[in-house]
Amino acid sequence: MPTPAEDPARNGSTGRARPDPSAVATTASPAQARPGLAQLATYVPGAAAGTLAERSADGRTAPLASNEHPLGPAPAAVAALRDAADQVGRYPDGAARALTEAVARAHAIDPRLVLTANGADNALTVVGLGMLHPEGEAVVPVPSFAAYRTASLLAGATLRTVEIGDEGLDVEAVRAAVTPRTRVVWLASPNNPTGAALSRADAQRLLDALPAGAALVLDEAYAEFRDDPALADGIALAAEGAPVIAVRTFSKAHGLAGVRAGYLVAHPTLVAELAKVREPFALNHLAEAAAVAALGDTEHLEAARELVARQRPALIAALEARGARVAPSQGNFVWADLGVDAATAASRLLDHGVAIRPGGAWGRPQHARITVGTPEQQALLLEALDAVLPHCPTSTGAPQP
Ligand SMILES: Cc1ncc(COP(=O)(O)O)c(C=O)c1O
After folding, report:
1. Which domains does the chain have, with CATH numbers?
2. pTM over 0.85
3. Is there a cis peptide before residue 193, judged by omega within 30 degrees of 0?
4. pLDDT (tens digit, 9 = 90+) per residue, 170-180?
5. Can you say whether the dihedral through the CA atoms of 166, 172, 178, 179 is positive or negative?
6. With a 6 A CB cut-off, is 193 part of the ligand 1 pocket?
7. Could you give the maximum distance between any two Cα atoms of the chain, in Å?
8. Ligand 1, atom 7, residue with closest C-alpha
9. What is the Å distance from ligand 1's center to 249 Cα?
10. Ligand 1 pocket residue status of 192, Cβ below 6 Å
């Protein structure tokens, strides 16, 4: 009698025995990844919109966990994706010249300052691998975007982790963490998850503290939602010759999170070096076509900005009316201390079709990051919070995954 693994009826029609896949997990001496990876965790994204639709009782959903564009992709970008579909049998342009030039035109800068990437995440990895090494240090603010830690550890750099607070950016603390061995200071402006952004004066204070050859990486994934004229603009700083690497994305204000397109702006000699680290065809045909079209669709971008400008204060006021403490935000999201265990609240909200991001991953078990949504999405969120919050326990303070 054949074992299940040898049974041809279970293994297709060839009759050849295949190994039992479950045996792979118990192999005695598997190949091992390098030891440093033990310090890293696999990135856990927010609940996907599809999961929400399955959980919602009445079909209404509010996907407010991933800071996406509430109105979806620019119609021009979707049309460009369709038009580009028949090119996918050929390699894309490795230098992504069309997008590089479109980005340069949009910001009135020289294309040699621009390096496109497979999303801002990819740009951050390229910066980490291109700037850092085991003898260098990276200043990593917390709470902030997890990719800075990952990119620094992948390059073998020493981390200098610094608390920047939940309201505002403690720039003095960041400055104090800079040493002669610093190679990179990572900073998101607006910061994910807190929404705080860096002023021009504070950017200058950080730049003054940097040792020669180091860079201030300004992750401006949410730049389009900033509305305070006193804030630093990483692209302008890089274009003026400051040691700044500005990182931008098409995932947020342009609504293209699913195609993966982003870029960095830095001094041309640094861009030429970092281009060696980027994989050869980082930007595929579809992503490049969609991103170029999205840059041209200023109406869609304006719609996102206007919606956030209108809905953000309404969301903050509604959360505060429910007893939450909410930090001021320059992004398309808010950081709220809900006063209860946020992981419990987030998991119960899913049954109402609502996704928010609990703060446990940032060591803030009572906080949640909530994306600014459409009026309908925010109404559903508030309805669900009213049903869920009174029955949630306060946090035990135990760290959550
Ligand atoms: C601050 C920050 N930087 C970068 C990214 C990554 O953006 P992308 O989708 O382009 O990889 C995100 C995504 O959430 C973010 O919040």
Report:
1. 49-71+299-391 (3.90.1150.10), 75-296 (3.40.640.10)
2. yes
3. yes
4. 999 999 999 99
5. negative
6. no
7. 78
8. 120
9. 7
10. yes
